[in-house]
Amino acid sequence: VKEKTLAMIKPDGVGGNYVDIIKKIILDSGFFITQEMQLQLNEDAVKSFYAEHSSKSFFLDLVKYMTSGSVLIMVLEKENAIADWRALIGPTDANKAKVTHPKSIRAICGFNSERNCVHGSDSPQSAVREISFFFEKSSSDNSTVIK
Ligand code: CMP
Fold first, then answer.
1. Catalytic entry in 119, 130, 131, 133
2. Would 43 be classed as within a structural domain?
3. What is the pTM of this model?
4. What's residue 146's pLDDT?
5. Of the residues 8, 57, 71, 122, which has the maximum number of CB atoms within 10 A of its CB?
6. ipTM for the predicted complex
């Protein structure tokens, strides 16, 4: 079944000039990039996007990291896009990825369990939620996402 998933290149990926190499990997892997936008997230947007992690010890660090520079948001489309994009990015902890999944995107451009360079929706439910978070809001709501 054709699926859509949300992919994000995080501030360390955009700032570290990894956008072109990541996009090449995406296209070479058979995904279509159907929507994309680069933007600077504000604290409220990150807190709302990552609401499920709000009680975690790393939450405030995550907010700081995710507001430290601009991100590139993309909607990726292909058969089995959700699981295939998760497989392509590799484990959350980039240090682990370098050992167990050396060809994964997080192994290539991530730094540790927080600064892991890219994000991918983890289920069909989160894909719908995350795509609409960035792309299907009324224009008046965009002020919550753009600094
Ligand atoms: P992501 O897959 O986008 O989803 C939640 C993010 O929280 C994750 O990538 C990391 O950036 C961050 N994160 C997850 N686990 C940890 C951790 N143990 N320590 C610090 N940051 C983490």
1. 119
2. yes
3. 0.93
4. 47
5. 71
6. 0.97
44 token code pair: 């409220």
Max CA distance (Å), the chain: 45
For ligand 1, whether the C-beta of 119 sits within 6 Å is yes
Is the residue at 147 inside a domain?
no
Per the domain annotation, does 146 fall within a domain? no
Q: How many domains does the chain have?
A: 1
Domain harbouring 76, CATH code: 3.30.70.141
Residue of 113, 122, 126 best suited for mutating to test ligand 1, as the one with most atoms within 8 Å of CB:
113
CA distances to 26, 30, 31, 131 from 3, rounded to whole Å, are: 15, 12, 10, 12
Query: Could you tell me what percent of the chain has a pLDDT over 90?
Result: 91
Q: How far is the CA of 114 from the centre of ligand 1 (A)?
A: 5
Could you tell me if residue 42 is inside a domain? yes
Take residue 35 and report the two structure tokens written for it. 């929507």
| 147: confidence class by pLDDT, cuts 50, 70, 90 | very low
